[in-house]
Design a protein that fits this description.
The complex is a heterotrimer of chains A (358), B (524) and C (212). Chain B has helices at 11-23, 81-92, 206-210, 215-223, 230-245, 251-279, 283-304, 326-349, 352-358, 366-372, 376-381, 388-391, 412-434, 489-499, 505-515, 519-523, and strands at residues 6-9, 28-36, 42-49, 56-63, 70-72, 95-97, 129-130, 139-143, 154-159, 166-170, 182-188, 191-198, 313-314, 317-318, 455-463, 466-474, 482-486. Chain B is α+β, with helices and mostly antiparallel strands. Chain B has 3 domains: 1-115, NADH:ubiquinone oxidoreductase Nqo5 subunit (Beta Polymerase, domain 2), CATH 3.30.460; 158-204, no CATH class; 206-500, Orthogonal Bundle (Cytochrome-c3 Hydrogenase, chain B). In chain B, the strands form 6 sheets. A 4-stranded mixed beta sheet of chain B has the order 1-4-3-2. Chain C has helices spanning 19-30, 36-50, 62-71, 106-115, 126-131, 162-177, 187-190, and strands at residues 55-56, 94-98, 121-125, 153-155, 200-201. A 4-stranded parallel beta sheet of chain C has the order 1-2-3-4. In chain C, helix 4 (106-115) links the parallel strand 2 and strand 3 (121-125). In chain C, helix 2 packs antiparallel against helix 6 (162-177) and helix 3 (62-71) packs across helix 6 (162-177). The chains are: A mainly alpha (358), B alpha+beta (524), C alpha/beta (212). Strand 7 of chain B pairs antiparallel with strand 5 (200-201) of chain C, so a sheet runs across the interface.
Chain lengths: 358, 524, 212
């Protein structure tokens, strides 16, 4: 396994030696931000392309084929189009909030994105309360959606925003509970440490039944967090035309669009990190030869592979299920997921205390 | 039921007579035909039916007053009359005293004149295409009945919607209204408090245009009423004209027409399933339905030359004979479709989310269904055996064996199930006929100019959304004096008014999809 | 830098109908000269725009069903990048007017058009949208949507087959490809001005009526 921290340290040393300390920090920040943004955008493009192709194959269609080989350039042409599209100033809108909202959404998802460990040492943000930070940063995006709906002076947007408020804040809870269950198992909140622990077995196997339950709850809640079907009520195409972003044109809409796909990637990434061992290769105790062979596959491929698999599962759900109704969404959360999550947390605690984990 | 005997009743006696009819069991008001008899005055013909005994009666009423013609309302006796009377008011300017919400139904509020009157001034200067929005009507207009037979007064008292409510407009351009229908809603949170349905966004004045067309020229309009039951619509009109002329059709024609009707029914039901899936957010379900629909369109295209609008039935037969491949292809398709239906159940119908969203939502009781005249799948889902193919068998329907699908729940789920089961039933009908199509002419010769004898004629068929009826009053010319289509969708809209109250916005979409209306058919 | 003839993948230029109109537009645009850099950038932008035409779901009658067929599995317009149909006019690039437009619907259509963000296009699908079609002499039908909004592509048929709709969309792609976004005026801006304030149009404008 390559340890990227040595490369990062080398760059760090070089910068420190070449320029004064303050300047070095500024340069490092800029470097990290550029890397994170480039990665963010490339994954966004990959995700949009993947969504189109996956959706097409579920529906017996072909998906984009004519722009570039296999339609590979389709997303780029969409980006060019989106950039030059007119941005309409809405009369009676709250201009500051209206323009701020898409940035809030994108910002929250970029910050969360930079917490993902792509390989050993390849992570922008890593500190001892990483899990808390991820949850805080991702819930920040709800604010953007609420503001978007509130400020665009459109009743459909307003309903969409209120729905998203009710839905996302509720599901934050069971998402937190399921993550907490795994924190109990790992005993740490630092993301790099959590992944490091899983090189000797993924948590979903080590935590057995409570971990699997937490995983399922996490996937449901995560799906709801990203506003994708069957939880796409805030934008409910057939009910609210386009929901909270009805009034946004051009890049304003583009930001929401990109953030939706990236949030899905992030949710899958966190699930990978916490449940499926992040960049850690598959480890089966007793099969040393097998484990050794698995280690030759680079960590970033493990991470991206697992993440894309979960993304694929989420897309499968997206293109199969009809939409829930708002009261059913809340019933599912408050009457089922939260109680089950709480009990599950208890079971996990007992398991850990009694040493019933692997 | 072709030649009609209309019993005319004096204006004073009219309301009492109608009440007596209702009491003796005439619970289904099939249609109200507004009429302008010129010298003899304006009036309306009410076609009533007893839903149990299938007894029919036609009652007419007329008033010689042209400036302010008034007829007592029957909207408190049959619920559907509320919209029917608004339509007659819109087209003929007949005021229905006692009607509690008499606004125009199809045309703009600022429209000048009543277009279906014979003396309507169609000049462009009176009614140009206005590009400013229609002035909103804020009040319901009620025409009071007064004892001393004086002119009834307009009472404006009930506000349609209050401005302190959260009002949203679903439509006229909205993905889930299946066209250009306009729901004016007052919300309380997510809950719908009041619904005001506005139609007319695709009112093309077909009935008026028919009055200046010869009979064969009328036929193309029928395809464009409810384009998803184009064949049935044409069937009704052809049947009405053929019966009036006394034309005997060949067996081959009847077989072809029955098979085509059933194929069209499957096509439409598939589209209904698809659109319902799409409205509920399951887009894959939509694509699956369309995949099979394309196969029907292929078969139809081979025979008729058209995909959606085919102009196939003509007076006296059909436009072209079936092709050699027809029987083989239809059989292949039927076998395939039977397998595919299971897929729909697996993917969408049995999905737990869909079941939760549709079971118990938008319940229409049997009494309401009859009172609203909600025929077709909607009525049958509420337990009302209203299939015209069973009530008044036409074409080959009395010689084939098929079940009338009945459910009793009356909710959105039952409405979808009725459609899906009817697909299987239609396949069953087709399979009985397809191998036995007799040899013979596919068209009988008609005179070059078709003139109907004087009289009133009507015919109805089972369209895919309910009973599609045609009423023709002929004065012996080569074009009808008055032609009225019974829209299958208008009663559904009337029923929607009632069952949409107190539901959630999401339910509103489900109900709309399950009622399965086609807007150009409502607006005509 | 000159604008060249637009290319559509795997369909030769000569197979398209009505190339004269396109060539006339190219000649008109080429009268103004722009520099190479802007021209290249224009090419890139036009490539992006022409391959990502998202339409507004706007269907009033029969043609709308054929439009749905184009989106379904057999015809699948996602192949061309017309995949996303937006329900909000703000996010749509073109309005595909499928169906009859009546007097009551005309103000709604005009408003939808005004709500769309530039650059925007209009495709008139079917006889009714083009000229009123079979309902031409009706008292309540607008005879052609080009009386109230500028139309870029007409797709005849009643209703047009899905293939015809795809062909019409390709024609629109060709039209988008020859426009100038950065360098100089383009044909899109030269099109007939339709005043913003509410006007009253009559169905058959005859000299004096037009002024009303």
């Amino acid at each position: 396994m390559i340890d990227f921290s040595s490369i990062v340290t080398a760059v760090d040393c070089f910068l420190e030696s070449a320029m004064p300390h303050q300047l070095a920090i500024v340069v490092k920040c800029i470097l990290a931000a550029v890397c994170a943004l480039v990665a963010y955008l490339s994954f966004a493009i990959l995700m949009i392309y993947m969504e189109r192709k996956v959706c097409a194959s579920f529906q017996c269609r072909l998906g984009p084929t004519r722009v570039g080989k296999w339609g590979l350039l389709q997303v780029f042409s969409d980006v060019f189009k989106m950039i030059i599209k007119e941005i309409i100033e809405i009369k009676d809108s709250d201009r500051i909030l209206y323009n701020l909202a898409p940035f809030l959404v994108v910002m929250s998802s970029i910050i969360t994105f930079s917490c993902l460990p792509f390989a050993r040492g390849l992570q922008v943000l890593d500190f001892n309360i990483g899990i808390f930070f991820i949850m805080a940063a991702s819930s920040f995006g709800i604010l953007g959606i609420l503001l978007a709906g509130w400020s665009s002076s459109n009743k459909f947007s307003m309903i969409g925003a209120m729905r998203s408020g009710g839905q996302m804040i509720s599901y934050e809870l069971s998402m937190g509970l399921s993550i907490l269950t795994l924190v109990v198992l790992s005993g740490t909140m630092q993301i790099s440490e959590i992944t490091e622990m899983q090189t000797k077995g993924w948590f979903i196997f080590r935590g057995h039944i409570p971990a699997v339950i937490a995983f399922i709850i996490y996937l449901i809640a995560g799906n709801a967090e990203t506003n994708r079907a069957p939880f796409d009520l805030p934008e409910a195409e057939s009910e609210l035309t386009a929901g909270f972003h009805t009034e946004y044109s051009g890049m304003g809409f583009g930001f929401f669009y990109v953030a939706e796909f990236m949030n899905m990637f992030i949710i899958a990434g966190i699930a990978t990190t916490i449940f499926l061992g992040g960049w850690a290769p598959l480890y089966i105790p007793g099969l040393e030869g097998f484990n050794h062979a698995m280690c030759y596959i680079p960590g970033s491929i493990w991470f991206i592979g697992k993440t894309l698999f979960i993304v694929w599962v989420l897309m499968w759900i997206r293109w199969t299920f009809p939409r829930l109704r708002i009261d059913q969404v809340l019933v599912l959360e408050w009457k089922f997921l939260v109680p089950i999550g709480l009990i599950n947390l208890l079971i996990m605690t007992i398991c850990v205390v009694m040493g019933w984990t692997f | 039921m072709t030649e009609m005997e209309v019993k005319f009743i004096e204006l004073d006696e009219f309301r009492n007579a109608m009440q007596r009819e209702r009491e003796r069991g005439m619970d289904f008001l099939r249609e109200i035909v507004g009429m302008d008899w010129g010298e003899e005055g304006l009036g309306a013909i009410y076609i009533l039916e007893n839903s149990n005994t299938r007894e029919n009666t036609e009652i007419g009423v007329r008033t010689t007053e042209r400036e302010k013609p008034q007829i007592p309302t029957v909207s408190d006796i049959w619920q559907v009359a509320e919209l029917y009377e608004r339509e007659v008011f819109d087209f003929f300017g007949i005021e229905f005293t006692g009607h509690h919400d008499l606004r125009r139904l199809f045309l703009r509020n600022d429209w000048v004149g009543h277009p279906l009157r014979k003396d309507y001034d169609a000049s462009e200067t009176l009614n140009p295409v206005r590009l400013e929005s229609e002035p909103a009507e804020e009040f319901q207009r009620e025409y009071d009945i007064q004892d001393d037979k004086e002119m009834a007064k307009i009472v404006e008292k009930l506000k349609i919607l209050h401005y302190d409510q959260f009002i949203i407009n679903i439509g006229p351009q909205h993905p889930a209204t299946h066209g250009v229908l306009h729901f004016h809603l007052a919300l309380e949170g997510e809950e719908v408090r009041k619904v005001d349905i506005r139609c007319g966004y695709i009112h093309r004045g077909i009935e008026k245009m028919c009055e200046s067309r010869t009979y064969p020229q009328i036929l193309p309009f029928c395809d464009r009423l409810d384009y998803l039951s184009a064949h049935q619509n044409r069937h009704a009109v052809c049947m009405c004209i053929e019966k009036a002329l006394g034309l005997e059709l060949t067996d081959r024609t009847q077989y072809i027409r029955t098979i085509m009707d059933e194929l069209q029914r499957i096509d439409s039901h598939l589209l209904m399933y698809s659109c319902m899936a799409m409205d509920m957010g399951a887009i894959t379900g939509f694509i699956y339905g369309f995949r099979e629909r394309e196969k029907i369109l292929d078969i139809m295209e081979e025979v008729t030359g058209g995909r959606l609008i085919q102009n196939y039935y003509v007076i006296g037969g059909v436009q072209a004979d079936i092709t050699a491949n027809f029987a083989r292809k239809v059989k292949e398709y039927c076998n395939d479709q039977k397998m595919r239906i299971k897929e729909y159940y697996d993917l969408f119908v049995n999905n737990v989310i869909f079941r939760n969203r549709s079971i118990g939502v938008g319940v229409l009781t049997r009494e309401d269904a009859i009172s609203f005249g909600a025929t077709g799948g909607t009525g049958r889902a509420s337990g009302w055996a209203c299939d015209v193919r069973k009530r008044y068998p036409y074409a080959m329907y009395d010689k084939v064996e098929f079940k009338e699908i009945l459910h009793t729940d009356g909710d959105c789920y039952a409405r979808l199930l009725v459609r899906l089961e009817e697909i299987l039933e239609s396949i069953h009908i087709i399979e009985q006929l397809i191998d036995n199509i007799p040899e013979g002419e596919y068209k009988v010769k008609t005179k070059p100019i078709i003139k109907l004898p004087e009289g009133r004629f009507s015919a109805s068929v089972e369209g895919t959304r309910g009973e599609f009826g045609v009423f023709i009053e002929s004065h012996g010319d080569k074009s009808p004096y008055r032609l009225k289509f019974r829209p299958t969708g208008l009663p559904l809209i009337a029923a929607a008014h009632k069952i949409m109250k107190r539901c959630k916005i999401a339910d509103l979409i489900t109900i709309g999809a399950s009622l399965d209306y086609v807007i150009p058919d409502i607006d005509r | 830098m000159e604008i060249k003839r637009p290319k559509i993948k795997s369909i030769p230029y000569e197979e398209f109908k009505d190339n004269d109109t396109l060539e006339a537009m190219i000649a008109q645009i080429n009268k103004e000269r722009t520099n190479v850099l802007l021209g290249k950038l224009d090419d890139l932008i036009n490539w992006g725009r022409s391959n990502s035409l998202w339409s507004l779901t706007f269907a009033t009658s029969c043609c709308g069903i054929e439009f749905m067929s184009v989106g379904a599995a057999r015809y699948d317009f996602a192949r061309f990048g017309f995949e996303v149909t937006r329900n909000s006019p703000r996010q749509a690039d073109l309005i595909m007017c499928a169906g009859t437009i009546t007097h009551k619907m005309a103000p709604v259509l005009k408003r939808l058009y005004d709500q769309m963000a530039e650059p925007k296009y209009v495709v008139a699908v079917g006889g009714c949208a083009i000229s009123g079609g079979p309902f031409k002499d009706s008292y309540h039908v607008l005879n052609g949507i080009d009386k109230i909004i500028p139309v870029d592509v007409y797709i005849p048929g009643c209703p047009p087959r899905p293939e015809a709709i795809l062909y019409g969309m390709m024609q629109l792609q060709r039209k988008v490809k020859i426009e100038k976004f950065l360098g100089g005026k383009n044909a899109h801006q030269n099109r007939k001005e339709i005043p913003d304030e509410p006007i009253i149009v009559t169905n058959y404008p005859t000299g004096e009526d037009k002024k009303e």
